[in-house]
Structure formats: C-alpha cells, structure tokens
Amino acid sequence: MKTIKRELKNCNSVIDLGCGNNSPLCRFKRWFKIIGVDDYEISKLHDKFYQRNVRDLYELFLNKSVDAIVALDLIEHLTKEEGLELIKKMERIAKKKIIIFTPNGFREQSAFDGNPLQIHKSGWDFEEMKKLGFKVIGKDGLKYIKGKENSVRFKPIILWLWISKLTQPFVRNNPKYAYNLLCIKDSSKTVEVNKE
For the chain, what percentages of helix, strand and coil (3-state, to nearest 5) are there? Predict the structure, then answer.
C-alpha cells in the first residue's frame, strides 16, 4: 500500500473500482477524496459511493473527470474482453494515474461468501500489462510458492510463508516471477478519446 499511496500523492480525487465494503484505500481518506464503485457490497467508508457495475463507468464519470482510478483485485473477475474495455474507460476518465493490482497470470478462484462475482475469469501477466503501457512491480513473493486461492503449496506452511516474504525484493524488480502484479500507468500521457 505504500507504493500506491506514493503514486497517488498528487491526486485529489480517486475512484476505487470494485471496492467492496472494506477497501484498504479508505485508510488514505485524509489525503484525497475516494469514490467507491461496487455492484455487490455497499460501502459507508468512501466519501461518495455508487452501487453500480464497474462496466458502467461511462454512465457515472466524464472523460478526464478524476485524478486517478484504482482497481485492486478486480480485473481478473472480468473476461479478457471486458477487462480490456474497462482499461480503455479508465484511461479516458483518469487525468493522472491508473493503478491495477492483479494476480500474475490466471489463478483459479471460485465463488465464496455467497458472492459469484469472486470467480476469476481471466489472467493478466507481466508481458501483457507492459504492452498495455503499465509500469509493473512484482508483489507477494515468488508465484510458484502459492497456488489456488492464494494458498501456500508446500509444508511447513509457516516456513514457506517466510520464504515467500524473503523473495519479495527479487520479484519487485522481476515481476515475471511474482505471485501478484502492481500495474501503474501515467494516464496524463494517454491520448484522450472523446466519449461517443
């Protein structure tokens, strides 16, 4: 979260896509206005909240109308086509930054807590996000240590959790090998496409 906070330091307004009711971004409310968008859970933590599908972004916001858009653990819950379309919308709406946090490649996840939206439908890897113009940082240690639904694949689990933490400095600069990816794009350099 320190990296995300640093990337948002010059932002006054941030959209928190797929925020749920307990987004970690809400810890930063005193630094910028946070607008939550989620169609499953209602949040009372955000400065403003819309209970809408994230695909409806254009119905809620105009081009270049907020400083940044953050999507933590969201894009993998969309199909590849829906995810690419969402990124285009994010580029058009955000004035300064787009931040996406997602697993590195496809990671199987089923519905839980009675929420079918938790199912993973797509995977996004380092090369793909780089080609889309994102700076990519590796997170959460080597991807080979964890498996389905973020569970440690080896025993003893505590030992392998420590090994995962110890590999973080390596994967930060070698995101190809990381379990998760933090993807950051400067949207001020993105060509604005007018909304039709």
Answer: 35, 25, 40
DSSP state, residue 191: P
pLDDT beneath 50: ranges in the chain: 191-196
The answer to whether residue 93 is domain-embedded is yes
DSSP assignment letter at 105: S
pLDDT in tens, 70-87: 999 999 999 999 999 999
Distance of alpha carbon 165 from the chain centroid:
21
For the purposes of burial, counting CB atoms within 10 Å of the CB of 191, is it exposed (0-12), middle (13-18) or buried (19 or more)? exposed
Full-model pTM: 0.92
Q: Is residue 123 part of a domain?
A: yes
- Distance in Å from the first CA to the final CA of the chain: 35
Contact between 140 and 172 (Cβ < 8 Å): no
